[in-house]
Amino acid sequence: MHVPDGVLPTAVCAAGYAAAVPITWYSIRKINQTGDPRENVPKAALLTAAFFVASWIHIPVPPTSVHLVLSGLMGAVLGYFAFPAILIGLFLQAVMFGHGGLSTLGVNAIIIGGPALLASFIFRLRGLRGDATRRSTGIFGFLASLCAIGISAALFTVLLINFIPADLDADTERHAILMLALGHVPLMFIEGAFTAFVTVFLLRVRPQMLTES
Amino acid sequence: MSELALEISDLSFSYPDKPDVLGDINLTVRSGEKVGLIGPNGAGKTTLFLSICGVLKPSKGKVSVMGKPVQIGDFNPQIGMVFQNPDDQLFCPSVRDDISFGPQNMGLSKAEVEARVNEALSAVGCKALAERPPHHLSGGEKRMISIAGVLAMHPELVIYDEPSANLGMRSRRRVIELLQTSTQTILISSHDLELILEVCDRVIMLDNGQIVAKGDPRQIMSDDQLMKAHGQEKPHSLIPHVQSHNR
Amino acid sequence: MKFVLDQHAYLNSPIHRWDTRFKLIGFLVLIFAFSFVQELYIMPAMALATVAIFMISRIPVSFILARLRYPSFFLFAVVILLPFISGSDVVFSIGPLDVYEEGIESALLISVRFFSIITLGLILFGTAPLLTSIKAMRSLGLPAILADMTLLTFRYLFEIGNYLHQMETALRLRGFQARRFSRRGFSTLAWLGGSILVRSYERSEWIYKAMIMRGYGQDVNISQGSFQSSARDILALGLLILLAGGFVTAQILI
User: Fold this and answer.
1) pTM for the structure as a whole
2) How far is C45 from chain A (nearest CA, A)?
3) Rounded to a whole number, what is the distance in Å from the CA of A129 to chain C's nearest CA?
4) pLDDT tens-digit profile of A133-173?
5) If pLDDT is split at 50, 70 and 90, which confidence band does C144 have?
6) Cα–Cα distance, C182 to B33 (Å, whole number)
7) What are the structural domain ranges in chain C?
8) Are B93 and A205 within 8 A, CB to CB?
9) N-to-C CA span, chain C
10) Which of A94, B42, C77, C158 is most buried, taking the most CB atoms under 10 A from its CB?
11) Is B11 or C96 the better-scoring residue by pLDDT?
């Protein structure tokens, strides 16, 4: 769901950056207001690296295997830190592996990071009716990722179809949108399930990782 | 007649950017033997272990365990390896889950798996820790659980990579006792030369990917020149006492 | 996985010697100018400009090619369908499939833009140590928190990548088969991911302690002394902006 360089027109790329700036600014403000910002930085940095690495885990999906985006999980664990973490992750991915893009960094941050913030809100609902149990953690972890990936996929599809420099007639456009959308549905469920398992694991092993966000 | 638990012939290994990490290694280990592997950092000990386990494909040579060649990339439950850092091995949310992992992958029945888990926990003296998350355990406890997870597979050959690293005295003593009373064939790599002296029947010195000495542990490790030449020091217990302990 | 992106940062070329702040601005302006171009006729000039900058940088071809391989697959996935679905003027047919002129043009356009921009990005961050690039971004307005996080993330990426590698090996040695899909296998991978997170989290607590014991967090002004620009730096920026302007103008006029 990363838009590569060269696909989108300048205006969209610029708009992406323009939209990413206030969100980043707001996230940083929230970060500076919670706890000790000095302590938060190494924590967030190491977790950013951990998510980066975790996304390399091959999840077998016959006949092939996929790499997960983990934006929903990042929202659940990192809270407001998820947006800058995703921004940094995308930057490093672009300059180290050429995956994603530099001109499209802003756009990709919105596509993936925006829904991650939503995921963090959804995940926090697990504690709405008393203490979070394994069941509520798993359910809301699943929902958080399902929504995050779903929205990211929708944004990605809409941007790509609308702005790719190509002449697509209405029919082709509809088909393309359908195919892209359908292709992402299994991913939504896999990411949801993965997030459910990981959040329940964290609840058992290091619950403060889930409450500090 | 004791079978050969491990037979390595002409084993060589190179990385694309590092040639001759291991060069022409020849080694035989009899069933039930406890062999120590010493040498400086970077000598190739871990590479040798991973080659024995079938994780790394050697550029040359053969490895056989209990008479059968080791299949590269396959699951070889007859060989167990305890990693230097238990955190690399312990990943499940409970100790019981973690120790079950190997036996489950061997396709054993639920009852058999449970029996093996309880057996392994008893062997390392950690029955009370069964339901705890491994992440909450002390260094010494993690070490014992990582050993239990390997023993539960009933391996014929067990490799220990720095088993006493980062352990307090008590935990270290428990590991030594476990190694001494074990009936499996054991290969131990360690900088803790006193442990090697207490546990091993034979010692092999590796440096720059080659075996530079092999034989009786006391004999090899008493050789000042040999030890110094390969970045080692004589273990304290082999140094003649010139000062009485009572002052 | 190779984690070094700046292993050629210590070569000596005009681009290496260029003040990183100006280099950042210049390259980013050019990258945006490239993404502005829509006309096929400008493509050769774009490719030429990219190759020229690449040659001036003295970075080995192998470095660029190695890093273009992986993203090329993604590009391929995006552009391969275009000649078959986009446009109305049929150029030729392969059996029942029509190949459209506009589709070919779009595919070409995207591809040239893609390779040019990525190459520029690799040169931009490959000709200075990452630390210098981040410092330059700091002096251009990047918030300190983001700069610190980026450097720390990069620094520990290798170590945490190593955790994953070691753990995967340990899993394999206990019989885990990564290729087969099963509920137990899935939970194993989730627990693996979770363990990486927990280990990194715990590691960070020690890193934090080590950092504050050496004064991290004191409000110290990052001295700008490390960046000293010369007339040549400004001139080079001017040249690149002119070049970018040229592409934009050409696009508007054609």
Assistant:
1) 0.90
2) 15
3) 26
4) 999 999 999 999 999 999 999 999 999 888 887 777 778 78
5) confident
6) 39
7) 14-138+226-253, 143-222
8) yes
9) 44
10) A94
11) B11
Answer whether residue A61 is part of any domain: yes
How large a percentage of chain A has pLDDT more than 70?
Answer: 100
Domain ranges of chain B: 1-78+187-233, 79-154
Contact C170 B104 (CB under 8 A): no
ipTM, 2 dp:
0.94
Taking CB atoms and an 8 Å limit, are A206 and B93 in contact across chains? no
Does residue A138 form part of some domain? yes
Query: Are A127 and A203 spatial neighbours (Cβ–Cβ below 8 Å)?
Result: no
Query: How many residue pairs bridge chain A and chain C with CB atoms within 8 Å of each other?
Result: 244
Per the structure, the count of domains in chain A is 1
CATH number at residue A90: 1.10.1760.20
**Token code pair at residue A3:** 């838009």
Range of the domain at A99: 10-211
Lateral strand order in the sheet of B4-15:
B18-30, B4-15, B60-65, B68-69
Confidence class for position C191, pLDDT limits 50, 70, 90 = very high
CATH architecture designation of domain B1-78+187-233: 3-Layer(aba) Sandwich (3.40)
Q: Which residues contact A36 (CB under 8 A, 6 or more apart)?
A: none
**pLDDT (tens digit, 9 = 90+) per residue, C18-66?**
999 999 999 999 999 999 998 889 999 999 999 999 999 999 998 888 8
> What are the φ/ψ torsions at residue B125 (nearest 5 degrees)?
70, 35
The dihedral region occupied by B57, where left means phi > 0, alpha psi between -120 and 50, and beta the remainder, is beta
Neighbours of chain A (3+ CB pairs under 8 A): B, C
Residues A204, B93: C-beta atoms closer than 8 Å: yes
* pLDDT one-digit tens code per residue, B173-204: 999 999 999 999 999 999 999 999 999 999 99
Please give the structure tokens belonging to residue A23: 């969100």
Instruction: List the subunits that have 3+ CB pairs under 8 angstroms with C.
Output: A, B
For residue B102, give the nearest of C167, C174, C177 by CB distance. C174
Position A12 pLDDT exceeds 90: yes
Answer yes or no: is A134 within a domain. Answer: yes
Judged by a CB distance cut-off of 8 A, whether residue A140 touches chain C is: no
Distance in angstroms (rounded) separating the CA atoms of residues A164 and A57: 31
Return the CA Rg of chain C. 23
User: Best of C2, C174, C196, C203 to disrupt the B interface by mutation (most B CBs within 10 Å)?
Assistant: C174
- Assign C1 a pLDDT band (cuts: 50, 70, 90): very low
